[in-house]
Design a protein that fits this description.
By secondary structure, the protein is α+β, with helices and mostly antiparallel strands. Helix content is about 50%, strand content about 20%.
């Protein structure tokens, strides 16, 4: 796999300036790149020499029609809902800010991280393990009796 290159400080500054000033926005790195989150959900970020934004289906369709836009595929597989913002839009602060704001509004509609199906799946797995242990404990006396009979 090719090594990913770092985002230029200029692109990070452009990205930072385009972020909404809402107190709900948190900025932290994702895979070493500048990213913005709301309620634990990433809605925009940088990746190498691009800016990506997470959008609802209708906005994705609109942006993907713009020359230079593309589905975000960091490892050859598209990341659902993310689009690479064309360089022409990234060079226009107001236009870039408007697209990132769309991503922010969309992320505000998503359930906060930690309350999704993944959490439920983890709890279900823990429940299955507990049930399996209880079943195993329940079977031990029968195994011991069988062992005593053969002794």
């Amino acid at each position: 796999m090719k090594a990913w290159k770092k985002t230029s400080p200029q692109l990070v500054a452009t990205f930072d300036k385009a972020l909404p000033t809402s107190p709900s926005v948190t900025r932290r790195p994702m895979f070493g790149y500048a990213s913005a989150f709301v309620n634990g959900n990433m809605f925009a970020g940088t990746f190498q020499d691009t800016i990506v934004v997470r959008l609802p289906e209708t906005d994705r369709a609109v942006l993907l029609k713009v020359k230079g836009a593309a589905p975000f595929e960091p490892m050859g597989h598209p990341m659902k809902e993310y689009v690479v913002v064309p360089a022409g839009i990234a060079a226009k602060p107001k236009e870039l800010g408007a697209w990132i704001e769309r991503g922010h509004r969309y992320a505000m509609t998503l359930p906060p991280k930690g309350t999704t199906k993944k959490t439920t799946a983890k709890k279900s797995a823990a429940t299955r393990q507990t049930n399996a242990r209880e079943s195993a404990v329940g079977r031990r006396p029968a195994v011991r009796k069988a062992a005593r009979r053969t002794s």
